[in-house]
Amino acid sequence: MGSLVKKDEQAGRAISQDQQQFLTFMLGGEVFAIGILAIKEIIEYGNLTEVPMMPDYIRGVINLRGSVVPVVDLSARFGRKNTELTRRTCIVIIEVASDQEKQVIGVVVDAVNEVLEIQADQIEPPPAFGAKIRTDFIRGMGKVEEKFVIILNVDNVLSIDDLGLLERVAEEDVSQLSGQGA
What we know:
By secondary structure, the protein is of the alpha+beta class. It has one domain: CATH 2.40.50.180. It has helices at residues 2-14, 74-77, 154-157, 160-179; strands at residues 19-27, 30-35, 39-44, 58-64, 67-73, 90-98, 101-109, 111-119, 123-124, 138-144, 147-152. The strands form 2 sheets. It has a 6-stranded mixed β-sheet. Strands 3-6-7-5-4 form a 5-stranded mixed β-sheet. A hairpin with a 2-residue loop joins strand 4 (58-64) and strand 5 (67-73). It is globular.
């Protein structure tokens, strides 16, 4: 599996700097995107364990092949209402860099659309004002067929402070689960 990851990273670097791939998804009626290299997988929404005393945007944790993975509701993280659950609601598992470590986090989205290739010259810098979310959450605005796709900066959306909180939650959950005796 490790060699597969390295090959995927090399393939990602081999893609011309003029062209980048993004997973697009719906959130509150708007199209957002995350760089494909940060995406680990997409899973059906379900089997979430709620964790008491967490911020509203943290839905809980899931067990992903034996690992405790925190799940963040992106809509709530952006200061909007919680994502309404439908048949198309899913969790996108992403890998976020924190210091020299990588943290796996799930994010709840309304629906996943497709993988798009967006030319670098079709990506504008984030707007200085007028966006409905914090501008430091936006990596850029991709122009696709006369419409804009908001390209997220996942490292800022899930900041180091938030990652520290999520790591503590995951560690506490693991110690509580192991103390219960399966």
